[in-house]
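pls ignore typos typing on phone
iron/sulfur cluster + seq
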Amino acid sequence: MATGAMPWDRPAPEREGLPSAWSLFPEDLAALGCPGSALETFRRLHRPWTWEAGAPVLGPAIRRWLEGVADLALPGIVERQPSEDGATKLALQLADGKRIEAVHMPRRVRNPRVTYCVSSQVGCAMGCTFCATGSMGILRNLQPGEILGQVLAMMAVLGPTRGHELTLVFMGMGEPLHNLEHLHRAIRLLCHPAGLGLGKGRITVSTSGLVSGIEKLATLEPRPLLALSLNATSDEARSRTMPVNRVWNLARLRQALDAWGPRRGEKFTFEYVLIAGENDTEDDAARLADWLGDLRSAHNLNLIPLNEHEASALRAPDETRVQQFAGWLKARGCFVTVRRSRGRDIQGACGQLVKPVARG
Ligand code: SAH
Ligand code: SF4
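k done
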């Protein structure tokens, strides 16, 4: 895995020198000489429902000290686009002017739970041909404090009001396992009981199949849920649309899942973007069921009709074919759902999180 040396792993220039306040654990705050309770300071920083006017409520002495040792800037919400289905797409601006996107998706009426689709990188290096983010290339990794800041800034403005009402899916911009070190620090911060206190079962990391990252993540605690973007059923086809398959092919990927060893109650999510004339035949369905093997009935297979976008000439199959494809899989014992992408009307759906980058 890339660390430090790669251009996309450098921190934003403004962040050099001071660590982000949102990336510090209570023990880090203590080590930096926190003049009050480090645990209480962490709690105030990481619980946006206790904030006032978009900022944590800190005593003057702690605030003065903290401003001297850490950067308190949060990503700014610079655009909000509500969708007809209740989802809101947000553009967030980072300290160096670069932008990421996230989507706020409330459950249905009278349920306080909200799912956030969040980003792990600015752009993405993986180059999948069907993906709008892929077409912009990689600009850089998000820092742990930026991943946290993204979540906290959204919560402060749009809710939910408690950590246990929040579910996170890393399905926004970027390949999370390409930024595993920062991602996992962020996950540890998100799960800290004095902060948001997210359960590890409320965080899903979606990967295009970076096997080295899957194998590493499998050993880390807390271990989030894993979603895998499959999107093709032969090495020939998968290598054409997802270059990562040229390094780790389908057989190797399947091995990594066995090695992960799902625990009781832990389910994989398999994402399969349906593309007309590319991966939507009955043979594909049969190969897909074969590849899943004994995982097919107890885990979730999500069919996602392609969200069409300007950067690609690929098209989604029609509704009849989508239902037919689901039927072929069900007949083979798979547990299948069709993901009706939310936020389609605002280009906030999967693979559409692309944004011209502000100068900086
Ligand atoms: N990089 C990670 C997570 C971000 S992409 C990954 O690839 O898994 C999140 C999901 O959106 C993936 O399952 C991906 O296959 C899917 N996706 C990408 N482009 C899409 C498009 N144009 N239409 C529908 N889904 C798309
Ligand atoms: Fe990157 Fe995922 Fe898009 Fe592939 S599908 S280019 S891995 S964001």
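The chain has two domains: 19-72, 74-346. The chain has a mean pLDDT of 92. more later
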